[in-house]
Amino acid sequence: MALINSLIPTFGRTLARRESTADQNLGPTVKPLYEIKETDDAFGVTVYLPGVAKDGLEITADAAELRIVGRRTWQQPEGWTALYRESSNAAYELVLTHDNAIDADRIAAELRDGVLRVSLPKAEAVKPRKIAVT
Question: What ranges make up the beta strands (E) of 4-114?
Answer without folding.
Answer: 13-14, 29-30, 34-38, 42-48, 52-61, 65-72, 91-97, 108-112
